[in-house]
């Protein structure tokens, strides 16, 4: 008898619940947060200047072309943001040649020289916000790949260089 009462109560609740459906929220279209494919360059831009030279002789707003290796830390590609660090191509990284560690892109063998020749590269959307998609995998970008960046200096202060990229060429 008890089971029959419980079954009847559940049936009554189900019928009442089904008579007035709760409106479901409609999915909203996601904003395009991806890195524009137009950022990838088919050929390497000319006019490469070393990062150390840019730090010494450039100003905020200058257009520059820098070449380097993605690296300088254990995680040179920021997750969920189009930001990466690049160490000037002229900085010798013994670990890349001798395979002396598992993360050669962190420049553990040339830390001080890497710090003095490093830039942050980012992609900024039209609204001035960082693109909310990481670089990793975009156009073959990965830690320890060589890239040439064309862009505009947005920060140049106390040895910190930030370049807003308008073009990225990934070396084969």
Quick overview of this protein structure:
With 172 residues, the protein is an alpha+beta fold.
Would you write up a description of this structure?
- By secondary structure, the chain is α+β, with helices and mostly antiparallel strands.
- It has one domain: OB fold (Dihydrolipoamide Acetyltransferase, E2P) (Beta Barrel).
- The protein is 21% helix and 24% strand.
- It has 4 helices and 5 strands.
- The protein has helices at 2-19, 51-57, 94-98, 111-116; strands spanning 63-70, 83-88, 118-122, 146-157, 160-170.
- It has a 5-stranded mixed β-barrel.
- The relative contact order is 0.21.
- Residues 1-20 and 22-33 have low confidence and may be disordered.
Main sheet: strand order: 1-2-3-5-4
Order of helices and strands: HHEEHHEEE
CATH level-1 class = Mainly Beta
Count of distinct structural domains = 1
What is the distance, rounded to the nearest whole angstrom, between the alpha carbons of the first and last residues?
77 Å
